[in-house]
Amino acid sequence: MTARIILQVFDQYQKARLLFVQSIADLASKPSNIECLEAVGVLNLLKPLLSDVVPSIQHMAAVALGKLANHNIKLAEDIIQEDIIPQLLHNIDKQNKFYKKAVLFILRAIAKHSVETASIIVQMNGLDALITCLEDFDPGVKEAAAWGFGYVARHNKSLAQATVDAGAVPLLVLCLQEPELYLKQIGASVLCDISKHSMDLAQTVVDASAIPYLAKALSNPDVKLKRQVLSALGSIAKHSSNLAEAVVEAEVFPNVLIHMGHPDENIAKAAAVLSKEVCKHTLELAQLIVNMGGIGAFMELISTPNVAHRLPGIMALGYIAGHSDQFAMAVIGSLSVIQLAMILEKETDNHILAVTAWTLGQIGKHTPEHAKSVAITNVLPKLLEIYNNPKSPDDLKAKCYTALKQILQKCLHIEALETLLHDAPPNVLKYILGQFSKVNLFIIFTNFYFM
């Protein structure tokens, strides 16, 4: 009888512990509860339960900690200060998959907040645990480990390099080859987070043979995977012409240009950014994009009302036009200048205005014919108006001034020059008067020649 009573007491205690951690995990799901949970000292109550003899209680305690850390940077820092992380990581390779995923969620929740918290995860050998779990047979554990690497790598170059040094890249490339869609998605996402920081990191991703698998994944109908693949390829291509050529050699074009018309906004933007990153490097890469109908695709993109779509499209047209006078004339022939003039007239976003001004300068800088094609759309007075506006930010003013200078130095269109005389400040007026002198010399020379 006594033994049964004792066992009943212990059974009630176990049920109470389990109910407690389950309740805390549920309460921690709502951000509005976090402050109150912190005030009652929830960490001190959860910490001993991480070593509970019952695996399900250990697991739920870890889940609760992860939710708390996810919502609140102070609690994430408290978990670090309480020395809970070494306790979590101890013998993680021998734990069951549920506990592993809960611990990995805690690492990810802490790492996401700042460079400092992510760096502490690295210093506490958290990346070794992530590698161990990324090699796990269970796909759910692999996914959770990959998420952890993503939250560390995205902060800065140093932390991304730490993920590379830990040996994550080959394992992430293997994720792209797994049958599970969610592993392909997170694999592409983390490779993007790593490669975006520097040319060397992007080269490491390329050397791990990631590009062929990313290119293959682009044909998958899943919207999220397409976006992440395009973003990863863009993060690689942006650093150098060699890396951009490596992307092009995977034969993702013209498929990427087709994706610029995708109904999903994020895919269309990612495709436009990738195309922009490729065409900016060299004349040959720009020629490739032009030959595949890139100018028309960018023209359609900048005609949309979506600001996020317009930006990479406008920049791409500027890069293409800047490479050669023939490309600039092709941009003019697509009627893009008219669309750019409309954007300059109606847009209120300073960043869009600055990029539009820069692109107009790239188009009009080549010859008098190019300058005239830009000038007749009446953009010069608008550029001058923005430049003269005291409320315009310095970067926007600088872009407008450079565009005016580039176009005016080639412009021989008298009507366009005359419209600027009244409002032009001295540093712009000198270019206008310089062009008038060229026109007058041309007239004198012509009259003399035909006398």
Automatic annotation (TrEMBL):
One of its GO terms (biological process) is cilium movement. It comes from the Eukaryota. One of its GO terms (molecular function) is microtubule binding. GO terms for cellular component: microtubule cytoskeleton. InterPro entries: ARM-like, ARM-type_fold, Armadillo. Signal peptide: none annotated. This is Sperm-associated antigen 6. It comes from Odynerus spinipes.
